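Quick question, first post here. What does this chain look like in 3D?
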Amino acid sequence: MPDDATTATARPLSPRKQRLREISDRWAPERDAFIAKNQAFHDDDRRYLRFLIPEGLRVLEIGCGTGGLLAALRPAKGVGVDISEPMIVRARAAYPALDFVVGDIEDPETVARLPGPFDIIVIADAIGMLDDCQATFQSLQTLCRPDTRLVVAYHNYLWEPVLRLAEAFKLRMPEPLTNWLRPADIANLLELAGFEPVRTEWRQLIPKRLLGIGTVINRVIATLPIIRRFCLRHYLVARPQPSGAREKLSASVVVPCRNERGNISMIVARLPQFCDDIEIVFVEGGSSDGTWDEIVRVKALNPERDIKLFKQEGRGKGDAVRKGFAHARGDVLMILDADMTVAPEELPKFYAPIAAGLGEFINGTRLVYPLERDSMRLVNRIGNHLFSLLFTWLLNQRFTDTLCGTKALRQRHYDRIAKSRGYFGDFDPFGDFDLIFGASKLSLKVVEVPIRYAARTYGTTNISRFRHGWLLLRMVGFAFWKLKVLP
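> Answer (accepted):
Ran it through. Tokens below.
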């Protein structure tokens, strides 16, 4: 970006902003030294932000300082804004591949110069320096796409006395009078400005390594319920609020099936035409009851329906779903279990929130309406309710039923989940958690759709109830390790 586009804003600064710029200009030569004094804190902070923000995106950082955080995110296009010219001079020298702008983000002229839209907008600590947080958030809407994520990282207000003491002993860079905002305050300001909070997280109970003791406490203990509220750092991820206008999207309904011959014709006959363009993708997994031949027969009898069929080479429902999604052409990808315990007539409920932008990952829940007799044993119901509490904490979004097989998401979001699959690996034979954990890592907006869950009328279940419980226990441990301990 040329220098004439990065000069300081001409709009007069408030006295508080002038004081901020004076302090930043004065301490710019020592900014990196202050970071080094608190290396454990900054390393953990950057590690978690890298977990939230995939590499290779268009990233804007507000209050970028000397540019270290922006560089750590490894963006395809990185732009940093800071009010201090000496800070920006050092950032440009250290990271010439990134663009840095001198300006006040509360000045409309500064916002207008930024090359949006961006995939990610990061505000790490700078929210404390804003004169009008709500107006600033509103101005950022012009730099957003519907899929943009706004990531706000800030200090816990309970730590203010400790941080001020650190400033007095020159262990931390001095700051002027700042806004000390709770996560609920930030969420409220975002909602007023047209953003929708998606997830909140707390980290770093001890912002020092202490010979490894602090690291262990931060990774294992600090994220536990109640305790996490005392952590130094909190993070809030938000997205632009949807307009509510319904898009015309095509849909692919993927039906993994094994020994489900008696249900195939009913699935096709009862699947409603909930959008103009629907394809049905059957993935058959080595049945012994003639399921493949039945799919071929039903396809021939229904030429008006776009039906595709594939044989599964691997094993497990998860493998079948991934094969179906790989061959699907729809804008919206949906899963319908062939056992018909969830009726095909329920699928419009999954399509509607995606088409209206109200949700990005739609998960069915069987535990709201009364269950049909013999559809789920009492011990399974109790276990599912207990596990829903655990997964809601682990994922930082509400999940009441992780094992409902019916799910929906946009293909572009699935492609991002598949691209990031290496983080979790091939760990889930059923495919439910592969999608749920992937959606959580990408901070997709989760919406749960209550459905009526019926007893199976044909064939026998392919899932052992004891294996189900063991799978849930494994997934709790796996999620805790991958989503809480490692980031």
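Residues 1-9 have pLDDT under 50 and may be disordered.
Residues 50 and 473 are 28 Å apart (CA to CA).
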